[in-house]
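User: I'm putting together notes for a lab meeting next week and I want to include a structural view of one of the chains we've been expressing. I don't have a solved structure, so I'd like a prediction I can at least talk through. The sequence is below, exactly as it appears in our construct file.
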Amino acid sequence: MQTNLFAEQLRLFLDVLESGNFSAAARVHGLTPSSVARRIDALERSLGCQLFSRSTHGIRSTPAALAFAERAQRIVRELQLARAEASALDSKPEGLIRIDAPSPFGRRHLAPALAEFLGAYSGVDVQLRLIDSFVDLHGQHLGKVDLVLRIGPLADTRLVATPLAPMVRIACASPGYLQRHGTPLQPRELLEHDGLDWDALAPPHAWRFEDDGAQRLFRPRRLRMVANNAEALLSGVLAGLGIAHLPTWLISEYLLRGELLPLFCEQGLPKPEASGIYALRLTREADSRTRLLLEFLKNRFGPVPPWDQALQSGFMRS
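Assistant: Thanks for the context. Below is the predicted structure for the 318-residue chain, given as structure tokens.
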């Protein structure tokens, strides 16, 4: 096939570029130096530029070769990945997938999804670690796992991020609190209420609402509880301590049962935030079992997550 021939030419070109001569590349590929030279000539003709200048002293890469090298490496990697994916379709995935995830989301949504995935793929095993604290992904942590789930903005552009689900946040309170203190009708009325909030690592979109066509910050005047854990804030709002601004993946079941009441949702669910729920990995070339899991989670959680679907068909239409 022409694709296979082109891929071989690219690999040969990269080996010549790295070794600096035809003879070394010829030994790697089991060819003669003259055969390598002819194949490089053919690649140059197909590209329409000279990759190596030849002289009696040897060969030297041209600026065109250096510019083309990065793209050639990417093409070779993608072809290898495509070949591995095609091969995986004919075989059952096997092996271990190591995952770190935030505890609240992991318990509520990821663990049940993983149980379903493992039931469908008996050759795959999962090592799941649920974490309550913020994980610093700039260190060597990702070298010890295959995937890290992250909720919120992504700052490390070196990582490969797969979006799994959008994030929607709703202001909510218990019926008891609203009976005692009244129900705010506009976000600016939050200033007159008690609340619960995140600590210094508060999400950037928390307590931001549409006001006169702009996103504005309105937060309760007194914070009865400040915590770094979503489930701690959930416990406080269920106990009637005040109003919280929490993600729907955490509170949907309590809203549907009437244990929490939504605020400012007369027009339906708020718009998703710019950030969302992501699976992060260090390299683009994920193995076949990890890619299979990513596709499974994307289909399970998106594009409209099941917890938001339940709200749209539940109290939002009642």
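A couple of points you could mention at the meeting. The chain has three domains: 2-89, 95-166+274-317, 169-263. The chain has a mean pLDDT of 85.

User: Perfect, that's what I needed.
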